[in-house]
Specification:
The protein contains four helices and 18 strands. The chain is an alpha+beta fold. The chain has two domains: about 40-135, Immunoglobulins (Immunoglobulin-like, Sandwich); about 145-305, no CATH class. The strands form four sheets. The chain has a five-stranded mixed sheet, with no helix packed on it. The protein has a five-stranded antiparallel sheet with strand order 9-18-17-16-14, with no helix packed on it. A hairpin with a 6-residue loop joins strand 10 (about 160-165) and strand 11 (about 170). The mean pLDDT is about 90.
Length: about 300
Amino acid sequence: MKNRAYRIRKIAIAMIICALLISFFSACEESETVNHTDPTINVVQGINYISTETTLSVGEQYTVAIHAEYNGDNMLTNFIAKLNGERYIDIGMYKEVYEDEIQLSKGLEDTDEWEFIIRDMAGNSASAFLTIHKDQNIEYGEIEEFLNVKLGAQDNTEFGSFFSFTDGNDYNLESAYNNQDIIDLVYYYDNFDKLEENIISSPGGNIDDAFTGTYGMSNWSTRNTIRFSREKIDMTTETFDAAANDSILIANTFDYGSGGRKTKYLEPGDIYSFVTSDNVTGMFKVVSTSGTDNGFILFDIKMQK
């Protein structure tokens, strides 16, 4: 009897253990298959924002405000904006909440279909949409031209390395230091850092090593920052030269935040777009280059007035 009772107790204990194990693995399986909700994204309404379908003139600037939140479990990792199916902005992050005010301008297409996408670390995503129509009464804007601009590299003593859109003049390092608020472009030759040769940047382009000393960039308190297209524009120099209004500038513009801070390895015939911090768009064409750190660059600029 005693052996039988002992066997019954062993069987009972084994059954309890099995039941507990089954319950444990079932719980684990359930937790592994929980489907978290998607993050959320919205186009924010406001007096200063475009948030619903509307019609704008070509080149007209507007602001879209974005608000996105995570699902409570998975951090937000990417914000993407697509214009007519093409990627226009791609920003990485690691946040619970993402907010941004995006400065845009109406393009040349009859309709701009925007899709704003937020993604999280688990691959969940959500989208918000906005449609902007083109006002058919097109009036393209006038452009400002600065032709045959010649800037010297950092060791050139004949031509200044700094250029101002305000007055169309070049400045040497000392005079640029004393006029920081109007300096927009900087030229130097990189044969000391990444060896990227002919470079056009702006004062905000992290170029301290190119201009040092008392008036060097590290001592500037105002650094205007321009963003440049990350790749050369696929355009002939003849098309650039023929541009008489801002239609071609608008067609090749980009979001300020997605641009690069420098243009590198510049050669004659290269054309780049740029956008100022005030969302003014323009382009420049390299005419010629000469020399290295004591040489110069000759280029043309066309930009919105």
